[in-house]
């Protein structure tokens, strides 16, 4: 199935001096301009191309990869604003993405970077963007389990913490006590379900909950010690940033983990760092 607004794998059916024509199924043939055509391409070859609607309301193809396809979120920069709305730089140089005024939660200004959701407007059949996410999220029950790993995109910052988009489908919240490392709007990362409340709201964590995270981190510490010839320059006195850089976890979790490994006789701890115990 051919999807406009997404990357498709299409077959070359005709060559010309100005590019190649691709078989786009029910949409007929689509031109891929010469500047986007890889060298050595021949009839019968298949290419990954992004299909979009150009300024003449025709389907166009490019090998440029957009920041976000239809159905995805992406951090984009406002290139300009006119009487219709804001035009976003989304990775397709020949066509900016329009975010109409009616789809802006607050007025966008040139040079501003903001998270945008890409969709096809049913009325015009054009690819557009929106910063109003609520109508696209929480449309299905949040049937997650505690400690389930999920994909997150940081969407907003508030006094409560960070609002994140969970698996592109739901809103979730990362409270300040769960924040490790640096978070910023548009950042994509892995996280874990901490709790799904009775009202469907989702609490998130950036590391596993309870014993699971300890076991997970223990394995990572032992594995890295093996790779580093039995020594790591980290201990319970190390800075949170140094610990996060090595293991993407909080200092508190790291201290509990190496404490458990020490009690189990698997490591030793000194002023320089941690070492594999001889019998480990």
TrEMBL record:
InterPro entries from the UniProt entry: CvfB_fam, CvfB_S1_st, CvfB_WH, NA-bd_OB-fold, WH-like_DNA-bd_sf
Protein name as it appears in the record: S1-like domain-containing RNA-binding protein
Span of domain Conserved virulence factor B first S1: 4-63
Family indicated by similarity: Belongs to the CvfB family.
Tree of life domain: Bacteria
Ranges for domain Conserved virulence factor B-like winged helix: 220-276
């Amino acid at each position: 199935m051919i999807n406009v607004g997404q990357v498709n794998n299409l077959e070359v059916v005709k060559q010309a001096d100005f590019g190649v024509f691709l078989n786009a199924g029910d949409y007929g043939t689509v031109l891929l301009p010469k500047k986007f055509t890889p060298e050595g391409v021949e009839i019968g070859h298949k290419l990954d191309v992004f299909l979009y609607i150009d300024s003449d309301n025709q389907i166009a193809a490019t090998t440029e990869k957009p920041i976000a396809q239809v159905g995805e979120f992406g951090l984009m920069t406002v290139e300009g604003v006119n009487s219709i709305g804001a035009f976003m730089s989304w990775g397709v140089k020949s066509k900016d993405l329009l975010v109409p005024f009616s789809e802006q939660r607050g007025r966008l200004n040139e040079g501003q970077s903001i998270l945008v959701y890409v969709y096809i407007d049913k009325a015009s059949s054009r690819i557009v963007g929106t910063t109003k996410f609520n109508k696209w999220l929480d449309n299905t029950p949040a049937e997650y389990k505690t400690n389930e790993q999920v994909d997150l995109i940081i969407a907003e910052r508030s006094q409560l913490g960070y609002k994140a988009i969970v698996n592109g489908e739901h809103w979730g919240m990362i409270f300040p006590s769960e924040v490790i490392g640096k978070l910023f709007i548009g950042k994509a990362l892995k996280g874990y379900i901490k709790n799904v409340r009775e009202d469907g709201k989702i609490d998130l964590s950036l590391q596993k909950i309870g014993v699971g995270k300890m076991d997970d981190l223990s394995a990572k510490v032992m594995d890295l010690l093996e790779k580093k010839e039995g020594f790591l320059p980290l201990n319970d006195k190390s800075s949170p940033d140094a610990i996060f850089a090595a293991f993407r976890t909080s200092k508190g979790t790291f201290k509990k983990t190496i404490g458990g490994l020490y009690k189990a006789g698997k490591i030793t701890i000194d002023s320089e760092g941690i070492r594999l115990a001889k019998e480990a």
